[in-house]
Write a structure and sequence with these properties.
Layout (H helix, E strand, L loop, with lengths): L12 H11 L4 E3 L2 E5 L14 E5 L3
Antiparallel strand pairs: 1-2, 2-3
């Protein structure tokens, strides 16, 4: 398991979607996070050797 912290200024929804799509092809949207997993139908993670990614949207 790896944990990475990415601090960015406020992203527009279009830029956030573009960034997420560069990481994985499909995301589940939850109130404060995005989830991508190879066990989801048609989800391809573009980073080798990763099987699940959770992106927390912290204030």
């Amino acid at each position: 398991m790896y944990r990475t912290l990415l601090e960015v200024d406020i992203l527009s929804k279009a830029k956030l979607k573009m960034m997420l799509n560069s990481i994985a092809s499909k995301w589940q949207v939850h109130p404060d996070e995005y989830l991508a997993s190879k066990t989801m139908d048609d989800c391809k993670i573009h980073i080798p050797n990763l099987y699940m990614i959770i992106v927390n949207l912290a204030d």
